[in-house]
Amino acid sequence: MDALVQLHEQNHKITELSNVFLYLVRERSMCDTDVACDVFFDLTNHVREHMELVDRDICGRLIAYPDQSVKNTANRFLSGSNEIKRIFSAYVKQWCSRKHHALTINDHASFLEDTEQMFALVMDRLQRETEHLYPLLRKVEDDRTEVA
Q: Is 105 left (phi over 0), alpha (psi -120 to 50) or beta?
């Protein structure tokens, strides 16, 4: 269950950073600040780490469970994870330069729209994990404990 504690902490941190970043970048002049860039790179790193932890530690455990419906749920989350990672990578590639540790915004309105959509997608994913995936893992872990 240690992974669930870590995941909840990551959810909180990602939500906090997302809210701060979205607040900052609504004002165009804030997009070019070191603070906004630091928050952006911290946020993107947290999202990547979180997705990897969910895929490896949660879905990996659930796929090994003998019940097919549990495996199907894990596979759906993995599939969704791959899609979010693909979209997230394209978003990061379009709007930032890792090499220069900077945001590369030539159209603020488009950047803001993409950013709001991207982080709404991430927040939706975190909510689905909290409401469906984590309870399923708790149930599976409880079932294994009862059998042992």
A: beta
Determine the 3-state secondary structure of 97 from DSSP: strand
Share of the chain above pLDDT 90, in %: 86
**Which residue stretches of 26-133 are H helix?**
34-53, 60-63, 68-95, 108-128
- Provide the pLDDT for residue 141: 84
How close are the terminal C-alpha atoms of the chain, in Å? 16
Residues 6+ apart with CB under 8 A from 18: 43, 119, 122, 123
- Can you tell me the mean pLDDT for 68-91? 96
Mapping DSSP to helix (H, G, I), strand (E, B) and coil, where does residue 124 land? helix
CA gap 104, 111 in Å, rounded: 9
pTM, 2 dp = 0.90
Check residue 25 and give its pLDDT.
97
